[in-house]
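As a warm-up, study this chain.
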Amino acid sequence: METYLVGHPWKTWLFVRVLTDDGLHGIGEGSLGQLNRAVEGALRDLKPLIIGRSPFDIEDMVSRLCREVYADGAQIKMSAISAVEIACWDLIGKYLGQPIYNLLGGRCHDRLRAYANGWYRCERTPEAFAARARAVVGRGYTALKFDPFGIGWRSLTPWEEDLSVDIVRAVRDAVGLRVDVMIEAHSRFGVSSAIRIAHRLAEFKPAWLEEPVPHQNIQATIEVAKAVSIPIATGESLSSKHAVAELLRHGVIQIVQIEPFYLGGILASRKVADMVDAHYGVIAPHAAAGPIGTAVCAQIDAGAPNFYIQEFFHDFNVDWEKDLVTHPLECKDGYIEISDRPGLGMDLNLEEVRKHPYNETLDMNLFQEDWHLRKQETAE
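Now compare it with the structure written out below.
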């Protein structure tokens, strides 16, 4: 098992290669931002429990790693497990000459609708956001997401709240009603603030309001969802199917943003997608890490009848990101074409990976002034 930490101007990525004794290999990703080295350490700790197993024994391997490693490492532990699980699926697909979705029931979609994220690296004014939004639509996107709330936490001052609402208004006016607008809140608010702000945003017909309150207290999310007319999207921070089950139990969350890295990888995410479907919900997978992570989501999306839309950062990232892998996913006219290549449909370009070593770069701080500009911050 090989791990690769990749440096980036405003985040880091953790890639994995799992190799077999007959010369085959599969790739995975377990990126967790500022905790990537912790995930890499967890992989080292789990290695004795993984080496020597058949890559086909995915169900048993993941179940045992979750159950028998008794420490509850939550996102750290699950990101490590998922990285290996994903690499095993990639390896199996390559061995059988099939894309992963064909091994999970086949595909349900010819292509995947995507929404743009990471596009609003601009001055925090209604005019600047509107101009950037028009440029995104000019690239063919029919949906876009953004956080208009600055560094808000728990509540906003009246001035900040008015500015945030004005930014949303400007974006909606710029793109019109034929383009979906998703509002990201990054778990900033308490229940009462989230409800008040959601009521103010309703007139702009957002496709969803995302993570208005922190995920740890599921009841808080439920209270917001019951009180507002905007659909609430959440789930990206949950690290077990049990937490998703509790979220769904209340019958008010329809859009679940599964994160394959936290749920145990591809098979677990596909099961959770079915669980969401049983509650008449849809999935909009979270993909804010590297190119392998988005490819993982695409394999899940392709075979999920209740797929809604896929997050896509890569058009608004560093230019060299696409060179980290062979056959990177592309978004054309707002849609991701589904690869029919074996496994994940790509491989790591190790020569390029080694050009960008981990360099103490920190993930952006969502509570630091002008975080949305994604300026480089280096650890001391």
